[in-house]
Structure to design on (293 residues):
């Protein structure tokens, strides 16, 4: 018979758990408010009144938002930037990091030093803006992709992960006649799928939440991303809806607060839906490579 030792909870444990639960509940209140208001029937909506559940459920705000050209256009722009940007960032980051792992490559130390240098020193907003301008990328969605293609932190993390892979597999593949590109695609990439899934989530969230770069590089409202549109809707005092489409129609009877909250829900919903499918790979990718052996 085996006995499992259980830790006796102390007063400190009870106080600690109670505080953590209270902090968690307080953190959930804004999300509960956003969801509740977004689904509240405009006929019973009362401003600044908190409901855990709407008195009467309604999809009127969502139906209005999804019928406007501006929201659908911003959603399309954000999907384009996220999809193309994530694919390019994964391809560039992993190929670049793989090259940095090869000490025999000419200039490897210089490139690695340049990457580490950017962790300490940053060019700043103005040089980056001038660079995008000289590349003729202003008011282009490609400016949002190329300006965030990768970063030093991601490269160093991916490099550390790739260095933890067994080098014997690469040597065996080269003995069998594989080229460097063949080794990368047939050996390194399949073994790196947990890391690929992890950084796919990182880059996808980064591109989906693109706000500051979109604010300074894109001035045409037709090329706004979803986050810029939501900011204009939620914060700007002169905002009068999510688009001219539908003006004078349902917008006249829908409270602005329900439209704002519904737009926030729609902006964060895709990431919330994608994350559970990548959670297993995400946890594995974070831990793998932390211990080399």
């Amino acid at each position: 018979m085996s006995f499992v030792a259980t830790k006796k909870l102390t007063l400190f444990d009870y106080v600690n758990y109670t505080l953590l639960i209270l902090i968690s509940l307080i953190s959930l209140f804004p999300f509960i408010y956003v969801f509740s208001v977004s689904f509240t029937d405009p006929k019973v909506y009362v401003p600044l009144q908190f409901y855990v559940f709407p008195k009467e459920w309604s999809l009127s705000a969502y139906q209005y938002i999804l019928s406007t050209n501006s929201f659908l256009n911003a959603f399309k722009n954000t999907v384009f930037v996220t999809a193309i940007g994530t694919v390019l960032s994964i391809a560039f980051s992993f190929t670049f990091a793989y090259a940095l792992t090869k000490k025999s490559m000419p200039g490897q130390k210089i490139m690695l030093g340049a990457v580490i240098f950017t962790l300490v020193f940053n060019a700043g907003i103005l040089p980056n803006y001038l660079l995008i301008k000289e590349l003729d990328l202003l008011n282009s969605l490609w400016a949002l992709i190329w300006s965030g293609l990768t970063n030093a932190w991601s490269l160093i993390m991916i490099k550390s992960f790739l260095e933890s892979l067994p080098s014997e597999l690469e040597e065996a593949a080269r003995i069998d006649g594989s080229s460097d590109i063949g080794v990368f695609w047939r050996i390194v990439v399949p073994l790196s799928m947990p890391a690929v899934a992890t950084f796919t989530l990182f880059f996808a969230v980064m591109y989906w939440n693109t706000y500051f770069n979109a604010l300074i590089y894109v001035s045409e409202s037709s090329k706004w991303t979803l986050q810029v549109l939501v900011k204009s809707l939620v914060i700007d005092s002169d905002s009068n809806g999510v688009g001219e489409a539908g003006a004078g129609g349902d917008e006249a009877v829908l409270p602005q607060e329900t439209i704002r909250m519904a737009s926030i829900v729609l902006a964060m919903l895709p990431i919330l839906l994608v994350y559970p499918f990548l959670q297993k790979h995400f946890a594995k990718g974070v831990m793998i490579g932390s211990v080399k052996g």
